[in-house]
Amino acid sequence: MGPPGVGKGTQASILKDHYEIPHISTGEILRKEIALNSGIGKISKKYINDGLFVPDEILIEIIQDYLIKFKNKEGYILDGYPRNLQQVEDLEILLKKLNQSIDVAISITAKKEELINRLIKRRKDTGRSDDAIGIISKRQDVYWDQTAPIIKHYRGKGMLKEVDGLGTIEEITKRIINTI
Ligand code: AMP
Questions:
Q1: H or E element: which one contains 133?
Q2: Total structural domains in the chain?
Q3: pTM (two decimals)
């Protein structure tokens, strides 16, 4: 977990190689669906481009498909899911059904000004449509409003590890691996 621009995707893709487990990024999955112009893609596009969350029912369907597909793996990294309290609940029900549990919830932290600068740069590098100036700040607000409460939830369960997201990519990877 962590606000947009904190480096979740970058870190998760390094960690998937380190631990040799799949990386399930809901943002990436949705962007692929949009590129394919699928049913899910068509619905998701307008939410993503407005900086809003795609409906929970769509997300749990996607997560269920992936967790079933990877059920024989040693584990997996969920990147960008769950993102609100309803998704935490949906995930808990699904994990129970699959007889699985979460080992650790990692929250990567950084200051808002740093994040906005990173997202402006990412827009230049990748052309991601939801990194447009107006949408960046909306996504930060949605994060603090909807995702921040789930950090409290995992802290309360004793599962939360907080990692400082300021520094080089390698420094942050080391911090995450040490904390795991
Ligand atoms: P990300 O790549 O994780 O920053 O996600 C990009 C966008 O995809 C988000 O701003 C949301 O619009 C959508 N999205 C990704 N994951 C979720 C989720 N768990 N729930 C709802 N929407 C999501």
A1: helix 133-142
A2: 1
A3: 0.93
